[in-house]
Amino acid sequence: xxxxxxxxxxxxxxxxxxxxxxxxxxxxxxxxxxxxxxxxxxxxxxxxxxxxxxxxxxxxxxxxxxxxxxxxxxxxxxxxxxxxxxxxxxxxxxxxxxxxxxxxxxxxxxxxxxxxxxxxxxxxxxxxxxxxxxxxxxxxxxxxxxxxxxxxxxxxxxxxxxxxxxxxxxxxxxxxxxxxxxxxxxxxxxxxxxxxxxxxxxxxxxxxxxxxxxxxx
Length: 217
Fold this sequence. Notes:
The protein is an alpha+beta fold. The protein has 6 helices and 14 strands.
């Protein structure tokens, strides 16, 4: 029995957002989620049940907060560690102090133009971009205007950088990391990602997936 129309889940690594929705669809229960998390990512996933699914558009507009890690010197076709990766040409003159790194991240804050990853769930002529990319079909990506409130390197232990980001609707953290890597000259790909907040909803308020499944299945 559903006691709440909005349920906060702390999504574990390894599940897609759609898999979790499909798992909880039962007895004509209408279920949706507000904001996709990639399978390799963890953190806050907001599930909407029955009439609450009408709040999808509202929640989608809320700012989102993330923490994560990037790996310097490696790029991948998906912009994260799950894709086909290759080593970049290292540049020995890259300044890896926090002050220098955050001078670069500051260039990616505010209203910025961002190109989404080719491997994404965006649609082109009715088909997902990741489907077209997996079939090696050429896809021309168009930059989009997005809002990045904060992008900050919190800890540097090269080749791993730990970061925090607060972003608006439509921002791909994978693209943010990829573009940052290109800017500093040695390349970077996303290794871990955790969503900690959507609007006023905090991951600290969320339940583990197993607990939710036990009460709803």
